[in-house]
Amino acid sequence: MPVRQLPIQVVNRIAAGEVVERPASAVKELVENAIDAGATRVDIFTEGGGRRRIAITDNGAGMTRDDLALSVDRHATSKLDDEDLLRIRTLGFRGEALPSIGAVSKLAITTRHASEPHAWALNVDAGTKSEIIPAALTSGTRVEVSDLFYATPARLKFLKTDRTEAEAVREVVRRLAMARPDIAFSLSGEERAPVTWAAALPGAPGQLTRLGDILGADFRASAIEVRAERDGVIVEGFAAAPSLTRANALGQYLFVNGRPVRDKLILGAVRAAYSDYLPRDRHPVVALFVTLDTQEVDANVHPAKTEVRFRNAGLVRALIVHALKDGLAREGRRTAANSDGAAITAFRPGSIPPSRGWDWRRLPNFPAAPAAPAYANAFAPNTFAETAQAAFDTGTPTADVRYEQTPASDLIDSPLGAARTQIHENYIVTQTRDGLVIVDQHAAHERIVYERLKASLEQNGVQRQILLIPEIVEMDEATVERLVARADELEKFGLSIEAFGPGAVAVRETPSLLGKTDAASLLRDLSEHMTEWDEALPLERRLMHVAATMACHGSVRSGRILKPEEMNALLREMEVTPNSGQCNHGRPTYVELKLADIEKLFGRR
Asked: What pLDDT is attached to residue 385?
């Protein structure tokens, strides 16, 4: 078959397959054009998930008649001053969006430039352009796309339901709205109730306002401002406290020079920064904005411009990790699960199960009840006694440290207050000046031991204790090989092991910080974590996994009854330990209830 030049209509349709994958792709390109045109308001409307109709109106600069004629030709753009593709200062620059959309749909553009006496209109039907005619429009540009992909029926087969496509459009608009809080957006259509995001004030407060409008009040309440700068690279934005997480990474919004992107490097940096705070199956909610010189980032990696490539990727990653860790450490107390109201909502007044009736005869020295008249049983409700008993049947505390006098004011005024009692052999109840705190003793001590291990490793290495008689731990050969292969890494934390035959490991030294520990249980947990590692996992991350596992085994266990002085000592340690709001598995270490919230529960205010 001889080589031949493809017709321009076919070329445009091939390009449309790369640039316009679905209705959301068309919305993204058109809204980016409106933003680049200097619009301060953008209105988006869709029908059929964008398949039947997309209408986008903006109040930007608009186009002249000559510019309108060129705008639907391939590789015609107003966004490049020269041929330098390393100085991209706009969201769009390829000159492919309008001709690609027009090649597979019915495209209508109405626009007016300030220098023109009236607006102009142009229609494109499956790549065929009409004559430019005068039109009525006050200012800006209005673009309508009808019957998307009707010129390429095969593409229609791959579209999802109207609701799914509408949700994809909504997500695109949300990301663009987060990137530009100074622009007002409205989104409406038959698939959804109209939503409007008003233009916000400049700076971090306006940015947080827009993020809260989009991500919800929970994010606004738990958001921590983060910022880092080095060598012309700025990382700023907001990160939710670890108490607010998601089951996937879809709650992570990343922007580079105002462009929404999905970059694996940045996602990996976010995961590394939160590794000390969250369980492995939970993901943080963040909105990060990276600003750097346009020559330091390549935005021309993908036709849809959703991916970027950094010249100094290591610097960007390090800044993201530093900014997030610094912010989380600075707001350490807010990282506990006491900032989002979840604890309060758990105390909803409700009915008491009737299965636990109040037997007044169980009370000591209670007088015998008079016999009730025979007719009383027919009318009197039998729920009062049952309801009351459940309220009094609380059991006995496992430890009671109620004071004869008021606790010392210095303890009451401490952030975590003074210990008052221990319940269920695991939870310490403390009294503060304006409320109470419930502490999970195991989770709290786990974080303390973990931070001590990290600090010891950074300073002079972990102190170790030599076992008088090595402990032999039997396990399968594969597990033994896995542990012995990582013996050097374990040695850094004071855990010295060596193979003892084909199916056993000899433990010769253990970290002093852990005290007496169950070596067999510790090694089995470590081997299970190692199965999830690969060589690509940085050594630092692997070491932190080892430290976290050791901390769990060396901390105060649930079920241990603590003395009053031990409880207060634990509280004071928590107050000076970094990141004490979460254990190293991501669980909260304490919950705080303010006195005002308690009074609301009892109707006192």
From this structure: 42
